[in-house]
TrEMBL record:
SUPFAM superfamilies: NAD(P)-binding Rossmann-fold domains. Residues 10-208 form the NAD-dependent epimerase/dehydratase domain. This is Epimerase. It holds the Pfam family Epimerase. InterPro entries: Epimerase_deHydtase, NAD(P)-bd_dom_sf, NAD(P)-dependent_oxidoreduct. The lineage of its organism: Bacteria, Pseudomonadati, Pseudomonadota, Betaproteobacteria, Burkholderiales. Gene3D superfamilies: NAD(P)-binding Rossmann-like Domain (3.40.50.720). Signal peptide: none annotated. It comes from the Bacteria.
Length: 332
């Protein structure tokens, strides 16, 4: 493996960015965090002397180039609202132009299973055809095609790292987060069903060290790779384990496709979940044997341990809210 220069995390304030930043920091590598505003990255990374915090305007090509100036590798984690997926391809096009102008050498897109559409039997490896049948899948496919087409142009090497659904301590955007919060707060958990179909989740802190290694593995570029979780598990089993840690029986309110469609009449975000509900009934499970052959064994947190850590974080957050509420009440 090759020593590498400074890494920039574009759109880093989320859970994936924090995982990658932690892995970079653990090996003493300086990194740049790039966000639309300064406050979220300051809150997430301001404690780390290895972190440089920069703002950008992703609609302005000059701002993109300045944000990428001096970086060897860019890791792209930029999200858009679920009902604005059409923004993904043009945003990627502008970003690639900006990083190329800045002389960036390597570009990693953290991708999803959306571009595949329905799996032709699980687990799937990277030979699975990319045939999305949803609008969001087509937008993600267009996004990653831009990344792959840029490989070898103007000194830029690119790759896509495809992850399954994720979970972990304090990760609010995880499908499983409601389970941990419900267990920690002795409430009914709201989940998207069905809940008895085996599903793959990656414990997101496991992803950071893999991405860090890929930034210094030149032979990885020019294609897409899979990063799998620790096997499959049902949401009902996750709930059973999480509520058991709280000494309670699981309590779930399950929203299936019909209920999501009904809720979508009043909530645009719920409406956007309907077309992707096939991933709950027909999950995509990833085979990452090609990646392990390239970089060696990958550490994977077992579900039992990941569930415990996620529950502990939810319980600590609930306790902190209770203390804050009590202090506010006394002050009133």
């Amino acid at each position: 493996m090759q020593a590498t220069g400074k890494v920039g995390l574009f759109g880093a304030a989320g859970a994936a960015g924090q995982s990658i930043a932690a892995a970079l920091s653990a090996v003493g590598r300086a990194y740049r965090v790039v966000g639309r505003s300064r406050a979220p990255p300051e809150a997430a990374f301001g404690h780390d002397p290895l972190a440089e915090i920069v703002t950008w305007n992703p609609d302005d090509p000059a701002s993109i180039r300045v944000a990428a100036d001096g970086l060897q590798t860019v890791i792209y984690l930029v999200g858009v609202p679920y009902d604005r997926f059409a923004e993904h391809p043009p945003l990627m096009e502008r970003t690639l132009a900006g990083v190329t102008a800045a002389g960036v050498e390597r570009f990693i897109l953290i991708g999803t299973v959306y571009p595949y559409g329905r799996a032709r039997g699980n687990p799937i490896d990277e030979t699975q055809p990319r045939e999305p049948h949803t609008f969001k899948g087509r937008m993600r496919l267009a996004q990653e095609n831009l990344v792959l087409a840029a490989h070898g142009s103007n000194g830029l090497s690119t790759l896509v790292l495809r992850l399954p659904d994720f979970y972990g301590p304090g990760i609010e955007r995880s499908l499983l987060n409601g389970v941990f919060e419900g267990a920690a707060n002795a409430k009914r958990a709201q989940v998207i069903g069905p809940v008895d179909v085996p599903h793959e989740f990656i414990y997101l802190p496991d992803a950071g060290p893999v991405v860090e290694k890929l930034t210094r593995t030149p032979e990885a570029y020019g294609r897409w790779w899979h990063l799998a979780g620790a096997g499959t598990i049902t949401q009902r089993e996750v709930a059973r384990q999480a509520y058991a840690l709280a000494g309670r029986e699981p309590s779930l309110m399950v929203a299936g496709k019909t209920l999501l469609r009904l809720l979508g009449l009043f909530n645009p975000m719920m409406r956007e979940l309907v077309e992707m509900n096939y991933l709950m009934t027909e999950p995509v499970v990833l085979d990452d044997s090609a990646l392990t052959k390239l970089i060696g064994p990958i550490a994977r947190t077992p579900y039992e341990e990941g569930i415990r850590r996620s529950f502990d974080a939810a319980r600590a957050a609930a306790a902190a809210r209770a203390v804050a509420h009590g202090s506010a009440a006394r002050a009133a």
